[in-house]
Write a structure and sequence with these properties.
Layout lengths: L1 H45 L3 E8 L2 E12 L4 E2 L6 E2 L5 H13 L25 H5 L11 E2 L2 E2 L9 H10 L15 H14 L3 H13 L5 E2 L13 E4 L2 E4 L15 E3 L1 H12 L6 H5 L5 E2 L5 E2 L6 E5 L2 E10 L2 E8 L4 E7 L7 H13 L2 H10 L1
Antiparallel strand pairs: 1-2, 1-16, 2-3, 4-10, 5-6, 7-10, 8-9, 11-12, 13-14, 14-15, 15-16
Helix pairs in contact: 1-9, 2-5, 2-6, 4-5
Amino acid sequence: MRTSLRLLALICILAGGSGVARTQNQSDDALSAQVDELVRTQMREQKIPGVSLGVMRDGKLIKATGFGLANVELNVPITPQSAFHTESVGKTFTTVGVLILVQEGKVGLDDKITHYLPESPEAWKQVTVRQLMTHTSGIPDYIGEYSGKKLVDFRRDYTEEQLLRVIAAAPMDFQPGEKRVYCNSGFVILGALIHRVTGKPWAEFLQERIFGPLGMNSTRVISEADIIPNRTSGYRLVQGQWKNVDWVAPTLNETADGALYTTILDMAKWDEGLSTEKILKRATLDQMWIPIKLNNGETFPQGLCWRIDDVSGHRLAWKDGVFKGYTTVMSRYLDDHLTVVVLTNLGESEGIPKKIADDVAAIYLPALKVSAVSRNN
């Protein structure tokens, strides 16, 4: 009789335990369903062909989902294994690559870049490594136009040295440290710095020191020629219709300002790398999240590569990117240990991945919804 009672009690305990597990799973499923509806709604409204979404919480990948099409012509669906261009989110890797050299004593953040690139023009002599990372160097953006003329021809190949000479020939936009203006050129120069200091091209160095150690087996430099498993196609909107993107010379898709392929699964590993000391010591990592001060003493919400925001008391470090056929974002709520990554294959969706990431984060952190309402009011 006592044995039967013990068995009955054990069954009740197990049933209760499994009931709790089901409740938790149901809760997670409900959140996931909200996220799916949100993403699909934005895709319809913004006419985005495909989205890959990852959510990381407490160092674990809790959601990795693909929506829509990786290739519209072949009707290939997006999966978590789909490879997207990182666009400027790739700058986060270049930043850590330089910080590895800083940690090893081979580079100083406040060193003048002429120490590493002695052929630099006179105008660059006061520019520091830190200013390249924080978009405060005053060096013009090579993607821009000057005197009505583009600095580079996107249908022409450039060597690293040729591209540096083109950038160096343009006049400075402002004095170093005077203001913050987004600049891709700074990260092209940082890629050259990595090459000069290590003797290895920036992408090879990142493979050895970041991608390999973190097991990011799908992350690599962009190549039009190579066979890339699960490669997505990028698109643009023309009068509301999807079109293939304009052709860009291969070497301009291989620069250190963002020219990488990656997947949501690899981005989860990157988030882990930024949350642990696998690549950098904590003290070095934390330098990325400190807002800069300009020459006039004003603070600007820009860290080393990352934008730094306070969202209703929640620290947010984020980086987005947009170029030919792709728009991406990585948002890290530093103190909440929540990260959202959104990769899209539509170049005209600038700002939309960030909005998706913000809204997804608010599903997992309800306090952010209050902040969003306040901002809208």
